# Entry
Amino acid sequence: MKTQDKLTALEDYLNLNYLITFHPENEGGYTVMIQDLEGCISEGETVEEAMKNILSAKQPWLETAWKHGDFIPLPSHFILDN
# Structure
């Protein structure tokens, strides 16, 4: 995998595996987020629906950040092989 300063294509970021966190809600369903991508949050009635929704939210989040030249962090659990 490339280092962060060498990620030169949006596709590189879209292919990264970010840690996804699920939070069960008292009323039912789940809130789901990618903490490394601030504000990338969604929800779903089931774990499967929540996963589908957060993956659908990830792409426009990254596309918008890329378009505006915003900093896009690597996944916090990312380990570089030298």
